[in-house]
Amino acid sequence: MTQLLKSAYYKDGLSDSDLDQIPFNLRAITAHHNFKVWRSKSLLYRIWKANLHIMIYQLITTVFTALLFFVPVVFLYNFLEYIQKKPLNKASDWGYVCIFGMLISNFLLYLSIGQQWYWSASEFNTSVRGMLNAEIYAKSLRMLNGLCLNDNEENKNDGSNLSKSNNLAASVGKITNLMAVDTNRIGQFSMWWTTFIDCPIQLTIALYFLYQLLGIASIFAFITLIIILPINQFVSRHFTKSQNKLMKFRDNRVNLMNEILQGIRMIKLFAWEKKWRNKILDVRESELKELFKAFLCLSMYNLIWMATPVLVTIVMFYVYTKVQGNELTASIAFTSITIFNELRYVLANLPDVFMQGYQAIVSIRRIETFLNSGEIESQFVKTNTLKIGFGNASVAWNKYGEDDEISSNEFVMKDLNIEFPIGKLSIVCGPTGSGKTLLLMSLLGETNLIKGEIFFPQTPEDILKPEPFMSNWILDNCVAFVAQESFLQNASIRSNITFGLPFHKERYKAVIKACALQRDFEILEDGDLTEVGEKGLTLSGGQKQRCSLARAVYSRAKHIIIDDALSAVDAHTAKHLMLNCITGPLMNERTIILVTHHVGLALAKADYIVSLKDGKVEISGNTEELKSSGASAAILKGANNGIDFEDIIETAAENTELKRSNNTKQRHPTAHRGGSTDATTLPDFQNDNGDSAKIVNPRKLIKDEGYAVGSVEFKVYLAYILANGRFFFWFMAILLFTTARFSQVMENWWLKIWSNSNKMLSTISQDSHSLDYYFNIYVLITMISILLGVSRLVWLYYGSLRASRILHENLLNRVIRAPLRFFDTTPVGRILNRFGRDFEEIDSTLTRCLNMFKILFLFGIFIGTAGSFFHNVRISLFFQYKFSVAYVFLGRIYAKCSRDMKRLDSVTKSPIYSHFGETIIGISTIRAYGATKRFMEEMLLRIDSNNRPFFMKCTLNRWLSVRFNILGSLLTFIAGVFILWNLDRIDAGLAGLSMSFAMVFSKQIMWSVRNYAEFEMGLNSIERVCEFLEINQEAAAIIEPRPPASWPHNGNIKVENLLVRYSQELEPVLHHISFEIFGQEKVGIVGRTGSGKSTISLSLFRFIEPSDGKIFIDGIDTSTIGIEDLRSRLTIIPQDPILFSGTIRSNLDVFSQYEEYELYDSLRRVHLLPSSENEQSSTTLSDDDNVNVFKDLDTTINEGGKNISQGQRQLLCLARALLKRSKIILMDEATASIDFAMDDKIQKMIRREFVDCTIICIAHRLRTVIDYDRILVLDQGNVIEFDSPYNLISNSNSSFYQMCQNSGEFDILKASVLKKKNNNTNEF
Question: Among 115, 109, 123, which Cα is nearest to 191's?
Fold first, then answer.
């Protein structure tokens, strides 16, 4: 610790490298291992059992401290009694014995206190935080997707109308709060629980001493204590209720904030920032109301416990003087007051301890509810590698509690009997919403198995390391999974592909080639070392999907599940992936279960086919058998919207077979099973390391989180001061603090006058006052002191609530109006840390520090106390100087070091939340690859990184308290010596006053320093909020004059000389392009990945401001209008469907703007509901039929829409967008995950119902846009063609013609163009 303080003294700021490792028993891996042993027991039992040895040491030191607590007071009484009775000119031997006894007893007491708090704060608190965070994360790795819980414990007797989504145990916001707030509260209480042990001991000893001093009066004091106690129970009950509601509102707010951050692109595209902001602020207002109630309870508690020792003192002195008729001497008065000062310190902590206890109980219940929820292990998937499939199995998405019945609206796949061939390719097809993804996820055990059996291998957590020559690379019991919604970590592309496996150059190169990633790496400046950002945001949809596919191919898995990986790529790339990857040499002898709408591409090489419809297996069997029976032709016909393209597919199959045979011939004869990776058979990259060896230091997209260095800047103080209130607020705060402290000093001063009144009575009888006079004034002073103390607290609570409201609103406004680049480069966990843990600190902890002015007044007390004390006892300037220098020096080092520890503590929390959020998003992929152990180890390392500065911060407090208290003991000893030297000038009353001041002097200065440091540490949260208050903002939301209400009236779009780059230091993405789209025209935009298609849409919505050129919509330059006006008048349907937790209704009509019939009409437009005619003809359903979940608008949608398919999510987002009825609609791969037949229906609907709108469609599927009016072809940021589909496909030299040829669907596309041409001719 001394070395750390030296570093803090000589350095501007400390970093993680300056910290030592925490003790082995406190490391997360040790704590977690100890904690999980008793997983079947209650949470409280597990905490007790895992930390039993710490609690025993804590208990021993607590009892020892309690027994020593009043020993110095005994020596003080004897010292004052000696001064009062000592004759003049007699030796002071007994006086020296008393003060020496005080010195030794104080030394022992403070060393014992230091050791007690080391075990309480440094050891126990750190251990509890580590083990709870680790266990919550471990539970999230085992948690079943879509789990619903009855939150009866929390919702009982609660009339609040919270969203249904609050009952989702798996909500990211709730679990984030469990890790950020609840674990911290339990850890805080673990420090203070011994108060319930030492408080009764100290109270008993204190009453015993008081009985010795005051006799029967102390019994009356004890009775007063008993009478007051029941009031606490009443306040406690209300506080507990308030805490339950407060935590639910906090969960709801953080969960909403998480959903906003996850869906920020869509929110900005729809110009919903203000509406979501108001939604968050409404929840925040409810949270602050509950916080205000909690503050009122705290104020009541403080009133009770501040009044308790004072009332007891009044009753005691009244009985002692008035009833018993005794004289109040200086030794009795100041000894009893010293005892009560010590008791006041003990009892003053009780309100906080009780509150922390109630908060800890609430938090334990919340965490226990989560830990007891359903797990993935409860699914009985038989991991027999000799068989893959289903045996009379029925499965559904959601898992309910044991007492819950499955909803009648639940989509259930019943009586599945399928056996996939091992080592072969199987395809699963069917229309959107037929249950394809549910089928695959059931194989992985991610769904609810209602009955029957599922057979599928499970990847072990400890995979054998491959041999040097890779002869054992492919393992029979390993599984890989390519999710429909790609999961990528915030790391380099290479790291995402290898996914924890060793980097094998030859195999890696072969995988990159097979997955068509070579050209992408050439385009990317850092090649495969490019950092992909959170959720792969720097890559296109196709690039993300191919990286996910590459990870599966590179893996050691023999069994690979691929969920529609071809949907996000263009036709040419899909064909390449099918020929060279899925049916290529790297996949030989590997089991592949492929969900796809590209049935024609896959059918030729598939050994097994499953066709689904409405959750039932319509057709399944061996490909050859199905061909001979004609079933395969029916599947093809259905997949191609009823058109028979068998001849075309046969031709494609022949081409596929020819290329496959050529690939086989090129294979190296000694290639091992499952991976032809000989470098000589593959075209080399530009270098040996995957096109990235020349990149020494790849650019870092997401920078490490920074933190301030040195003292907290004045602007941070000012921000918090002004947020609390202006001149009047601070004037009243200063007035209340001044008068409150003055009244406390007056108590002791008046006791001095009272205790000396007996001498005055004997010398000047005519000026003496009665006992009632002294007693009544003493009562008046103490009552005023109590009222002022409580008023001060209430006033501060009021100011802190105002500050919390203002700062939160300002932060929310800045974040929600930040440009997309901010969200690209800032992890969600880092932002959530501000809205979660930092605001919990601002709301609660910072207020309890009683802010800066309390500290300044404590410092003022120190100066005043020191001045009067030094003056009275005539301590030499030498001692004054020495002690002042020592206090200032120690306090300065402590404050600087603890401030840095707090900053490191805050900074190291964000990686924990980021890693957790990343895990929740990709949990199915992580479990499929057997990577849960690796992710758990990573989390344990991050928990240790966070616990290190926290442990050091707690240990620093012990370091300071021991040294300050020992200095205080020395000062008291020196004061006693000087009193004995000056007995001729100091009477017993003045000696008692001086010694009582001396005994609290070190505590006052220590708490001055501690409060100052705690306040600065609390200001770290303000500092972090202020950092985000300075982030760049988007262009103005509204610019006057605003465009006409009818704009855009025609839908004409004109692009002139547009030059776009993502940042000034990067190369342009669009190179001075110009084109014009006429009103009501339907235009398709096509091109390879990286050609600039999405950049056009981003420029149109002004997410990227052009470096040169302009965009005009109906003659208005878009740069001259506010982005809110621009985005709200346009409609975009993005590729990634973003849904929020809630219901179908709340996702369609997020802000309750439409009538119910409009919502149903929109669902019918996108064919999620049948048309009115079809609905009437299909009203009767058999028991085995699935109810259409979209018929009930109140059907629950899980977070991210995970309980419906990707295609259904896209259609629901399409239905939501079409409700706007904008004049310009931009579709960015909006139907990529939808089957061809549904896509065709959607396109026909758009052409029919939006005939007066301008439609721009970015598509990989050429069939989606082949009958549009014109096609815009992009290549490397340039417009190379812009003409009608007929003219482009008729020109064999055109790029579009080549794209059609490469798609494998040239005849289909040409037939569609000719059909449209003929229809137009006939109409003409």
Answer: 123
All residues at 6 or more sequence positions from 45 whose CB lies less than 8 Å from its CB, including other chains: 38
Q: What pLDDT digit, counting tens, does each position of 129-158 carry?
A: 999 999 999 998 888 765 444 444 444 444
* Closest by CA position to 1150, among listed 469, 269, 295, 523: 269
How far apart CA 595 and CA 444 sit, in angstroms, is 14
List pLDDT tens digits, range 827-858: 888 888 888 888 888 887 776 655 444 544 55
What is the number of residues in the chain? 1324
Nearest to 355 by CA among 246, 440, 435, 439: 246
Query: What Å distances lie between residue 563 and 428, 437, 567, 611, 938, CA to CA?
Result: 9, 7, 9, 14, 28
Beta bridge partners of 617: 612
Is residue 1043 within a helix (H) or strand (E), and if so which, with residue range? none
Q: What is the 3-state composition of the chain as percent helix, strand, coil, each rounded to the nearest 5?
A: 60, 10, 30
CB atoms within 10 A of CB 1002: 25
At 594, give phi and psi (nearest 5°). Answer: -115, 120
1062 closest CA partner among 1105, 1119, 1117: 1105
Q: Give CA separation, 1121 vs 1076, 1101, 1227, 1247, in Å.
A: 20, 11, 23, 29
Q: Please state whether beta strands 591-595 and 1053-1060 pair in parallel, antiparallel, or not at all (unpaired).
A: unpaired
In 3D, which of 757, 754, 998, 964 has the Cα closest to residue 873? 998
Cβ neighbours for 981, distance < 8 A, ≥ 6 positions apart: none
d(CA 260, CA 815): 10
**C-alpha to C-alpha distance for 1075 and 1062, rounded to whole angstroms:** 21
Residues 6 or more apart whose Cβ sits within 8 Å of residue 211: 218, 219
Residue 432: helix, strand or coil by DSSP? coil
Neighbours of 734 (CB within 10 A): 13
Token pair for residue 340?
Answer: 């009560």
pLDDT in tens, 1234-1272: 777 787 788 888 878 888 889 999 887 788 888 889 999
675 backbone dihedrals φ, ψ, rounded to 5°: -175, 90
pTM: 0.76
Q: Point out which residues pair with 1282 in neighbouring strands.
A: 1272
How far, CA to CA in Å, does 520 sit from each of 493, 511, 865? 11, 14, 73
Exposure on the CB side of residue 909, measured as CA atoms within 13 A: 26
For the chain, what is the radius of gyration of the CA atoms? 37
* 888: its two tokens: 């200032």
Which tens digit of pLDDT belongs to each residue from 344-383? 666 666 767 887 888 899 899 989 988 888 777 545 677 7
Q: What pairs with residue 1075 in β-bridges? A: 1055
| Cα angle: 746, vertex 750, 755; to 5 degrees | 150
- Residue 106 burial by Cβ neighbours in a 10 Å radius (0-12, 13-18, 19+): buried
Site of tokens 């409860």: 378
Q: What is the distance between the alpha carbons of residues 588 and 672, in angstroms, rounded to a whole number?
A: 10
Closest CA relative to residue 891, chosen from 723, 1008, 767, 981:
1008
Cα angle: 782, vertex 784, 787; to 5 degrees: 110
Is 552:562 a contact under the CB 8 Å cutoff? yes
**Which letter does DSSP use for residue 1256 in this model?**
E
CB burial of 598-612 (b: ≥16 within 10 Å; e: otherwise) equals bbbbbbbbbebbbbb
Angstrom distances, CA of residue 135 to CA of 31, 51, 268, 366, 905 = 10, 15, 36, 14, 20
Q: Is-contact 411 435, C-beta < 8 A? A: yes
